[in-house]
Every structure is written in structure tokens, then in C-alpha cells.
Design a protein that fits this description.
The protein is an alpha+beta fold. The protein contains 17 helices and 48 strands.
Length: about 850
């Protein structure tokens, strides 16, 4: 194997150094790793996955089944075909045994994705594809031409996507392609340019000019390095100036291999013999340690074997049109016995397939033998004709079943060279069984997860959302927790405080003075339209259509099974306009829930939903002195209890900002929620913080919020509920209307299961030892003596906190028949001890609610 002195399209003025399996080599710009290895005399590039047999370069394109390598530099990437890796300076690669190694460090490259619409998409940049693109462009149509090779230029008026492989064809002419933008540049790639780009293309019409793959023939030792498809040897000569061997035997079933023989002979390769099955001859074996050294030829009818010294065996078993995308589009395929290939047979989508002009030949696939254990049909999976015979001998008849039994066609190449050959072996084994194909599925070639993810990885995989006031929290030492995608301040330690000490201080400020919290992350959804009230009545368990503008009502959403889904407040802004609040983590799910019912069940309702979560910054002002702080900030707002009662809202000016103020309390204390446009969030927060200084105002986080709400028995959806809890279980039968004829979940409340008395109810728990903090999730049993497993648990702890206001620890729990157990003693097994607790009502602080109005 050597480089021809003048042939090829590589740029010999630009040498490229690379390393393979620890050895230094040189190629040229324009080489692939495969062509450079062949030019340097490297015959073996790895070993097979199952049998450990030597493997070399078999083809020249994406159909390559054996030349699989691991790229080490510039960034580790496994299972790449050497035939599609463009050579670049600094490339470091190694051969594989069929198994790759993932990188241990994050990929520094960028990936992105774009959408495109076109009248015509042409896939394939050969003569037929270029002609189709030019013809379409002349009509004034928008045309995209995609080709997987590094094409320099395309036809006039056509958008060319070079180095772009169309990997998937879906319904409604929606196709996905991968463009390799900087892979060929290696370490010299600009860091700001995406390495690969995922194209999502919607096309009016698709033209598939994808050419054909040459077909192998199964014979003894057909996997040995030096056995190569005849068309690949032509490609290495004309594109890369590489002679794949010095002395070759050509084994063919058709005329195309003769052209390969002529051209290679003209370039200096000695052609030892042309073996044509149409002349009754076949290759029956190959010898050589790590590659071809001797080729054995014999008559198909039997007779003496001839031996030829050769280092290259070129094989052409005919040509298979590349029908993968056509099949993915829903196209039917049929086998044309005269042409000896599968051809298109109609498709439901707007797609045309351009058949290549390669000459027909004999439909010859497997050289007869007594032992088929080295007649390979799938070179990547080490599947032989013997394996196919085992499958059919076990009773399998379908090619799909044989594929799964043998794993033929399941490797990275997706059966490009093995699919028809495997099918032919099945037909031969079954004595004339109809030739079939397995289903072609996307992707046509392997696609990295990084490309599929695009920019949605690393920090962008699950984007961190922060409120408008986030920088203030950071500057004042807040520690954060993730709630959904939001970063929320958990607590604000002062000096060397740990979390319990900080939370005690924050709770005391909210209960005895004044405190403020950033509540901007609560979901906010506006529902507008003439039927908005009727729509909400159908979804919420209580009546909302009777709500007057300026008023707020607590509401609960249930799934159709009656189980609590989310809760929040509903404010009526006008006759046809409502503002819903949701839990932070459920905002998107609630919006999807509303839209699902509007679009699928009640599309006639004139109601429209819009998320406004990020349009409003919300500051919760809490505590007995909160009215004093608000009065100083909003002198024109009447804040006394009579003028501004609980569960109402007012538009006003607060700290010079247009604001909506709501009298809502999630703490049980006198409280207000002040809402301003998002970009004024920090200004509002700082004004409230400054106005509260004379009263010792204290910022508090989510941990304190949890303590305050739990002392009042307010449940948190997802913490005190688990998808099996109804409003009645939470002691909230009052929020379920008995007047409305129907709402989502209503009928489920009358089921025997949802009305039985031993359902789990939300209750409070008071440990006998006032300092014992029950772990959340702890089980509860009826007796001090723990029975042998399985322990019959009565329920479990859902929330548990120390409380400065109560002077003790406490917990909330879901307990079977819990409301009937109030005052009873239960037990929590904790490791080697059992903690006695007393069941109490869930509202443990200010049960009369007197503090709420100040």
C-alpha cells in the first residue's frame, strides 16, 4: 500500500501529522484517517468485538463496518469510523476491539441546533443530486442540498450544507440532519463556533439522491484485513491518491468491478485474477496472519483450487440503493430479482428517489461451503452464515427475528453492508424463502448525545432560574436551595450561625416583629376571556365565578381521580380576567393542565391562559409590624383591617412604584404580598428593607417559610401530599363545593375508596421529648413494641421542624384515620429506639387565626 505520485484530490502541499496506536504518521490535508492509514501501510486497525479477529479498512464511507477507532485528541470520542474522520494536525487515535471509552471530562466544544424551511430538500451531492437541485432552483423554489462529504461549492441559488448527513426522516417531510462544522479542524477549531449543528428541516418535497452501497459476498475469511469493497479501492485511488494494495484479486458478480480493476491496473496495481461468479468461479478462502496474503479460488461446481499471492482482495457482490431514509419516510420496498436489489415501491410522503445507474449482475450472496463459521455476514457484530443457520434451525423465519437472534445489523453501521447479505443467507437457509429486509430506523449514522442535546447540557441542561432580587440575596450571605429550576434563598446566616440558629432568628422576627421574603418564584398565570370564570369553575374544586373583582380566594386543583394536584390563590382582576398563583415547582405543569382541558375538552370556551411568572417580582411582608412598614411606603393606601381586609388586593403606589398589593398570608401572621414589574424587584426589596429598619426587619428564606406554614397546618403540595391525597384527607372539605354540578375530580370523591374513614389524614405530631426531631419519612406504628417485618405502618412523617413559637419540636404526618386518633399515642421506630408521639390537629399555632388580621 502506498501513495500514487499524482492521483487524488488531497493537498500535498499541506502535510498533516497524526498518531495512531502510539505511532507517528503523516498524511495530507483532504485525507481521512482511513486513507492516511492505508497510505502508511497500516492494515489492521482493530479487532472484532466478539471473536477478537483482526479488522482493517473495508469501505470508504459511512457504510464502513470494521474500521472503527477511538479518537484520543483533541477530545476523546469512541466508536468513530476511520473512513469519515477527516485528518487534521494533532489527531491522536487508536484501534478498537469493538468497544469504546467515554471521556472522563466535560466536552469543551459547543453544539447548537437550527430550524429550516425549504421548498425542496435534496439529499446527496453527486451528479444526480446536483442536477435535481439545479432544476428545482431554476423554478424559483427554495432549495437546500445536503451532502455528507466536504463539498466546496454547490449549484447557483442553492443553499449547500456540506459535511451534513441527513440522519432521520419523519412524518410531514420533517427531516433531521447533522452538520460537522469544525471536526476537521481539531484543536485549531474556533472556540466560539459550534462543533456540530443539528438541522431540523421541514421540506415541501424531498429528493433522495443517496446513491448505492456496494454489497459484500460471504466466503471463508471474508473479514480479513485486505478484503475491501471494489468501489472503495476506486475511491481511495481517485479521491486520496492511495493504492490499497500492490497485487490484487477481484471477486465480483457484476461488471462494475472490472472498471475498478482497469483503473487500479493503470495506477500500478498488479491484478492477479478476476473471479466472476457468472463464469462459475468463486473465492473460497483467504489466508494470512494479520491480512490477506493468499486468495483461494475454485469452480462453484467443484474442482481444483487455485491459489494467488495477493495483499488485496476486491469484492463486489452488486449494489444496494441507499434506501434508509426512504424507508424511514414510510416508503415501501420490494426486491427486484432482475436488478438484484431492493427498489422503492411507493411512499405516502412527498419524496422522490433517484436510482443509480450501476449495472445489474447475478444475485449471488454466499459461497457454498461445508463450514460457514468464517463466512461473515456482519463484520462488526461477528455474525456468520453459521449463526444465521443456527437461528433458522431454531425455527426462526422472519428476518427481523433472525436479526435479534444473531444481532446482525444492530451495530453502528445499522446493516448498511450486512442487511441484504443477512437476508439472503436467511433465504438460502430456508430454501427460496422470499427476500426481506429489517426495518430501517433513524439515525442513519450515529449521532453524539452532545449534538442531540445542543446547548441544553451543562449549565444549560437544566437552566438555573433566579429572581430579580437574587444578587441582593447573594450579597447578604444567603444560602440557596433549588426549587424546581429556581434558586431560592434558604436562610440568611449571621456571623457563625448554623441553619437552625438562623431559622430560629428569622421565625422570631416574622412572629414578633416584621420580616420579608422573596416570593417571586410562585407560579402566576393570567386567565382572560368571556368564559374565564366558567372555565375555572370546571377545574377548581370551589366556586370562583362568584368572586368579585378586588377579591382573592384560595383554590385547589385535582386530577380526575380526585387527588390533589396543586393549590394557590385566585384573584379576580376584572369580570373577564383572573390571576392564578401556583406552587413554584408546579407552575409549568398547571399551565399545561389548563391548556390541555381548553384545547381537548372545551375548545368552545372563550378563555386564554398566559404565564406571567417572570413578569412580576413579589415581596412578602410578614409580621405584626408589617402594616406599619407598608403604611410608610404607601401613604395613599388605606391599610387598616376594615379598608383592606384579608384575601383582597389593591393597586397602589409603593415606594414610588406602581404595585399590586395582596392581603395574603402563608405564615398565619398579618402579611402582604407586594407585586411590581420584574425589573423593579430589587428597587422594591431595598425600599421595603430600608423602611423596616426601625422595626428590626429581617429577611427570611424558604426554611423559615416552611416552619411558619407548618405551625399553621398549611400543607405543601409534593411534601405533605404524594399523589394519593384528596382535599378531604387534608381536612379541607370546605374547599370542595357541594353546589357546583361538576368539576374535574368531583365524581371520584364519591368512590368507596376516597370516602372510607381509614384514609390517611393530615395531622400534627408532638413528640413526648420536646427536643426530639422526627426525621421526615419516619413511619408510625400503633405499639411501642416493633412487630417483625413487614411492619404494619399507620402512616409517615411529611414535615418536621423545631419551633421557637411552640417552644418544642413538632411534625405533620399522614396517618390512617388520623382525625379520629387526635389525642392518641403513636410510636416512631428510629433505628434502635422508639419515639412516642401524640397525635394532634394540624394547626398547632394560633388555631383561631386571630393574628392574621393584626
Amino acid at each position: 500500500m502506498t501513495r500514487h505520485p499524482t492521483a487524488g484530490l488531497v493537498d500535498r502541499s499541506v502535510p498533516v501529522g497524526f498518531r495512531f496506536d502510539g505511532q507517528e504518521y503523516r498524511g495530507y490535508r483532504g485525507d481521512t484517517l482511513a486513507s492516511a492509514l492505508l497510505a502508511n501501510g497500516v492494515r489492521q486497525v482493530g479487532t472484532s468485538v466478539r471473536l477478537g479477529r483482526p479488522r482493517g479498512i473495508y469501505s470508504a464511507g459511512s457504510e464502513e463496518p470494521t474500521g472503527v477507532v477511538q479518537i484520543e485528541e483533541p477530545f476523546p470520542e469512541p466508536m468513530l469510523t476511520a473512513t469519515t474522520v477527516e485528518l487534521h494536525d494533532g489527531l491522536v487515535a487508536s484501534g478498537l476491539s469493538g468497544r469504546g471509552r467515554l471521556a472522563t471530562t466535560p466536552d469543551p466544544a459547543r453544539y447548537d441546533a437550527v430550524y429550516a424551511h425549504t421548498d425542496v430538500l435534496v439529499v446527496g451531492g453527486g451528479p444526480a443530486g446536483v442536477a435535481a437541485a439545479e432544476a428545482a432552483a431554476r423554478t424559483g423554489a427554495r432549495v437546500i442540498l445536503a451532502d455528507e462529504h466536504p463539498v466546496a461549492a454547490g449549484p447557483t441559488g442553492v443553499r449547500l450544507l456540506a459535511r451534513t448527513t441527513v440522519v432521520g426522516y419523519y412524518d410531514d417531510n420533517y427531516l433531521v440532519a447533522v452538520q460537522r462544522r469544525t471536526n476537521h479542524l481539531g484543536a485549531a477549531a474556533p472556540p466560539h463556533v459550534a462543533r456540530e449543528r443539528l438541522w431540523r428541516i421541514r421540506a415541501g418535497r424531498v429528493v433522495l439522491a443517496t446513491g448505492a452501497h456496494e454489497r459484500p459476498i460471504a466466503f471463508a475469511g471474508n473479514d480479513r484485513p485486505g478484503v475491501m469493497l471494489a468501489g472503495a479501492a476506486r475511491t481511495y485511488l481517485h479521491r486520496y491518491g492511495v493504492l490499497a494494495g500492490r497485487r490484487a484479486v477481484v471477486f465480483t458478480t457484476n461488471d462494475s468491478a472490472y472498471a475498478a480493476a482497469r483503473e487500479l491496473a493503470g495506477a500500478g496495481v498488479e491484478i492477479a485474477e478476476i473471479v466472476d461468479t457468472r463464469q462459475g468461479q468463486a473465492v473460497v478462502g483467504v489466508e494470512g496472519d494479520t491480512g490477506v496474503s493468499t486468495v483461494e479460488v475454485a469452480p462453484l461446481a467443484g474442482g481444483a483450487t487455485r491459489r494467488y499471492d495477493a495483499d488485496l482482495l476486491l469484492v463486489s457482490g452488486g449494489w444496494n440503493p441507499v434506501l434508509h431514509l426512504y424507508s424511514q419516510a414510510g416508503g415501501r420496498l420490494r426486491f427486484d430479482e432482475e436488478l438484484g436489489r431492493f427498489v422503492p415501491d411507493g411512499c405516502r410522503q412527498a419524496v422522490s428517489f433517484v436510482l443509480d445507474e450501476s449495472l445489474p449482475g447475478s444475485t449471488f450472496f454466499v459461497v457454498p461451503a461445508e463450514d460457514y463459521r468464517t463466512h461473515f455476514v456482519d463484520l462488526q457484530r461477528d455474525v456468520t452464515v453459521a449463526d444465521v443457520l443456527d437461528a433458522t434451525g431454531a425455527g426462526l423465519r422472519s428476518v427481523e427475528h433472525v436479526k435479534r437472534y444473531t444481532t446482525a445489523g444492530t451495530a453502528h453501521d445499522q446493516g448498511k453492508t450486512s442487511g441484504v447479505l443477512t437476508s439472503a443467507a436467511v433465504r438460502q437457509a430456508l430454501g427460496g424463502h422470499a427476500l426481506g429486509l429489517t426495518t430501517f430506523r433513524p439515525p442513519y449514522t450515529p449521532v453524539s448525545f452532545a449534538t442531540l442535546a445542543g446547548r441544553d447540557r451543562g449549565r444549560c441542561f437544566d437552566p438555573v432560574r433566579v429572581t430579580a432580587i437574587h444578587d441582593w440575596h447573594v450579597a447578604h450571605g444567603a444560602l440557596f436551595e433549588n426549587v424546581g429550576q429556581w434558586q431560592r434563598a434558604r436562610y440568611y446566616p449571621v456571623a457563625a450561625e448554623d441553619m437552625p440558629a438562623a431559622v430560629r432568628r428569622e421565625c422570631r422576627a416574622a412572629r414578633e416583629g416584621v420580616a420579608l421574603m422573596d416570593a417571586s418564584t410562585l407560579g402566576k398565570i393570567e386567565v382572560q376571556g368571556a368564559d374565564a370564570a366558567a372555565f375555572l369553575d370546571r377545574l377548581y374544586t370551589n366556586v370562583l365565578s362568584s368572586l368579585r373583582p378586588g377579591a382573592i380566594r384560595y383554590g385547589v386543583l385535582c386530577h380526575a381521580d380526585g387527588m390533589l394536584f396543586d393549590d394557590g390563590t385566585v384573584a379576580r382582576l376584572a369580570e373577564d380576567r383572573f390571576l392564578l398563583t401556583t406552587t413554584t415547582g408546579n407552575a409549568a405543569a398547571v399551565l399545561e393542565w389548563l391548556e390541555e382541558w381548553l384545547q381537548t375538552e372545551w375548545p368552545h370556551l372563550r378563555a386564554y391562559c398566559t404565564s406571567v411568572t417572570e413578569q412580576w417580582a413579589t415581596v412578602a411582608l410578614v409580621g405584626p409590624r408589617s402594616r406599619d412598614v407598608l403604611r410608610s411606603l404607601a401613604p395613599d393606601l388605606a391599610v387598616d383591617a376594615a379598608a383592606f381586609p384579608f384575601m383582597t388586593w389593591r393597586d397602589s403606589t409603593v415606594a414610588g412604584l406602581a404595585a399590586r398589593v395582596c392581603r395574603i398570608s402563608f405564615s398565619g401572621e398579618l402579611a402582604y404580598e407586594i407585586n411590581v414589574p420584574w425589573w423593579y424587584g430589587t428597587a422594591l426589596w431595598e425600599a421595603v428593607y430600608a423602611a423596616g429598619q426601625p422595626f428590626g426587619i429581617t429577611p427570611y428564606g424558604t426554611e423559615t417559610m416552611h416552619v411558619l406554614r407548618a405551625e399553621k397546618g398549611y400543607p405543601i403540595v409534593g411534601q405533605d401530599t404524594d399523589g394519593t391525597v384528596t382535599p378531604h384527607d387534608l381536612g379541607m372539605a370546605w374547599v370542595v363545593s357541594k353546589k357546583k354540578p361538576d368539576f374535574v375530580g368531583k365524581r371520584s370523591f364519591s368512590r368507596v375508596d376516597t370516602s372510607r374513614p381509614d384514609r390517611r389524614h393530615l395531622v400534627g405530631l408532638l413528640p413526648d421529648d420536646r427536643t426530639t426531631l422526627l426525621p421526615e419519612g419516619a413511619h408510625l406504628i400503633a405499639t411501642r413494641d416493633v412487630p417483625p417485618p413487614p411492619v404494619p405502618a399507620l402512616g409517615h412523617v411529611t414535615s418536621s421542624y423545631p419551633s421557637a413559637a411552640l417552644g418544642r419540636t413538632f411534625a405533620l404526618a399522614l396517618v390512617k384515620g388520623g382525625r379520629d386518633r387526635i389525642g392518641q399515642r403513636l410510636y416512631a421506630p428510629l433505628g434502635d429506639r422508639v419515639v412516642p408521639v401524640t397525635v394532634a390537629g394540624p394547626v398547632l399555632y394560633d388555631p383561631e387565626g386571630a393574628r392574621r388580621d393584626g
